């Protein structure tokens, strides 16, 4: 597989022409502008996959070469439209494009070795149009070497046919109050500083009360056994609050499952940050991150436990 030449440290956005992809391009362009990084728009199109489809293989008179060229021409058109959108959103950003005749998942995973961040839509243009997370975004979020932003939207988004939401108005990060979530929390602070947005740092835990009464926020002065959790949370934030003094931070404890508590009540302009363990791609940490992705209806940043790609 021939991988396109992308400048190391670029913000890389996957382009497939879907509404979710359009939202991803807007977010990627804005992020590249704020980070002062180059932007790369990439489309993965493998004509051979289409030609192996029995519906085409059995159709009489199909010119395979012309069909392949039509796929390539369609890819060029999608990228041209994406460039116009990106330049409208962030005219100060250097924008490059690339088409790869290979599976989109393999292409993006390889690019994650040099990208600063990958930005994707939550699902593509396939026949299944549902709120379920697409296979490309799920695979890349699970295995990428660098952070991945998946731009999600509500199933019934009143602005679905209009312009995508611009900017990030709130950042929320899941924190387990241990060193394991350090990378995610620090990434959330950085994003909050970039977007000048308030930050909520949420630690979710499961106990008897959660099992009996369901999930919910724990009041700051609740007379229960959460004192140790609050102290751990405060210790996790201490150095980062000094590093990012302009970020308004609200620590919060919530009873319940992470994938239920974290996405709850977030608007379309929120960025939800979750960590992903690098120890084992099959670990529960990965499953938790993907469960959050499935439930979220906003942009989700998945951060590897050990940051990959250049900084």
Description:
Helix content is 39%, strand content 19%. The protein starts with 10 loop residues before the first strand and ends in a 7-residue tail after the last strand. It has helices at 19-35, 47-51, 54-57, 64-89, 104-111, 135-143, 182-195, 208-213, 227-243, 258-261, 284-295; strands at 11-14, 39-44, 95-100, 117-121, 148-151, 170-174, 199-205, 216-217, 249-255, 270-276, 299-304. It has two domains: 11-151, 3-Layer(aba) Sandwich (Rossmann fold); 170-304, Rossmann fold (3-Layer(aba) Sandwich). It has an eleven-stranded mixed β-sheet with strand order 3-2-1-4-5-11-10-6-7-9-8, sandwiched between helices. Helix 1 (19-35) crosses helix 4 (64-89). Helix 11 links the parallel strand 10 (270-276) and strand 11 (299-304). With 311 residues, the chain is of the alpha/beta class. Residues 11-152, 170-304 form the UspA domain. Belongs to the universal stress protein A family.
Q: Tell me about the biggest sheet? A: 11 strands, mixed
Principal-axes shape call: elongated
Radius of gyration: 21 Å
Q: What order do the helices and strands follow?
A: EHEHHHEHEHEEHEHEHEHEHE
First-last Cα distance: 26 Å
Helix content: 25-40%
Helix segment tally:
11
* CATH architecture assignment name of the largest domain: 3-Layer(aba) Sandwich
Q: In the CATH hierarchy, what is the class of the largest domain? A: Alpha Beta
**CATH homology group of the largest domain:** HUPs
Overall SS class: alpha/beta
CATH topology of the largest domain: Rossmann fold
| Domains (count) | 2
Mean pLDDT: 80
Protein name: Universal stress protein
InterPro entries: Rossmann-like_a/b/a_fold (IPR014729), Universal_stress_UspA (IPR006015), UspA (IPR006016)
Family: Belongs to the universal stress protein A family.
Domain UspA: 11-152, 170-304
